[in-house]
Here is the input.
Amino acid sequence: MYLSRFSVQGFRNLHKLEVNFDSNVNIFIGKNAQGKTNLLEAIYFLALTRSHRTSNDSELINFTKEYANLSGEVHKSQIEIDLRVLITNKGKKVWINRLQQPKLSKYVGQLNAVLFSPEDLELVKGAPALRRRFMDQEFGQINAEYLYFSSKYRQVLNQKNNYLKKLSRGKVRDTLFLDVLSDQLAGIAAEIIVRRYKFLNYLSHAAQDAYEHISLASEKLTIEYKPSVSEISSQDATEEIYHKVLDNFKKMKPAELKRGTTLSGPHRDDIIFKLDGKNAHLYASQGQQRSIALSVKLAEIQLVHNVTNEYPLLLLDDVMSELDHGRQSALLNYIHGKTQTFITTTDLEGISWEIIKKPKIYHVQNGEVSLEKEN
Ligand code: ATP
Ligand code: MG
Here is the structure.
């Protein structure tokens, strides 16, 4: 799939933009703080109705405006669709082909995008929360049920935590309601956990392939899902997982009452990356960790393609300069001709562009985007 026309009003420093993108490669050059990341963030938001940088949508609205508006024309192999998102301080609204959609979960997935920024190089090294966010964003955009259950989970988890806080402070005494919430939460947790197993299993294979391709090394990459309820195994059916999560909630109840928060469940899960069976968080070199992060991003592209039959857009924010020449070439080779790609950079120098044929080059300055004249 690709995005042809894109228009933006009042999104961060992008006051008013109307851009036509190339269906292959688009390169955005500009000095710091001109709006390059904002532009990729806007495209990402049109696809996922969320930002990769903030969970507070109000931050996205230009300081001097009341709302931000994004719209674009998406071309898929069979159809073309018009998408639109309106962000106000009261919330957001979405349209497909000018028809307002009451549910975000109906909208998300119409346009798929995979974003790669320097922070993603932390995927292996960083905190578990980073890896959970990765799962929620990526699996949510290819599976409407996952999206639904993960937002439901957050909602019920909040409810349960609030109630636990009240119990722990002696403001309420009835623990029966707590059990009701735990039961509900375990049911939703099981739905999330089976899907995490399924998608991570697929990602593991695709990432292994990509790792081989970009590292030219002989180590074998594997990705393992580590649910915080350790009794669960990949062979378990949803029902069994539900019982195991619920049993765990029961076992942890005294500790949870004391701490006033839920101590296990999908919000405490993690992913383990291994090279030749050894934990990459502990043993892999900086370069190996970067190769793993990059492989996982490339695997996501395959995962989206596998599920939707279309390649997602690839948004590369400032990552080219962070990769050495070997990895740059491997990356560009891997994606060449498959995905519509958006690359930001402060400088064209030091990047091996020769692989890309005829990219469209734009300059970003003070929130304005202009196409470089072809020579
Ligand atoms: P770098 O090369 O440093 O990454 P960049 O071109 O990616 O720079 P952006 O992050 O896209 O820069 O843009 C940053 C600019 O956007 C800053 O000047 C910031 O003040 C401005 N900005 C951020 N949010 C808003 C907002 N809500 N309203 C207006 N301007 C904003
Ligand atoms: Mg930036």
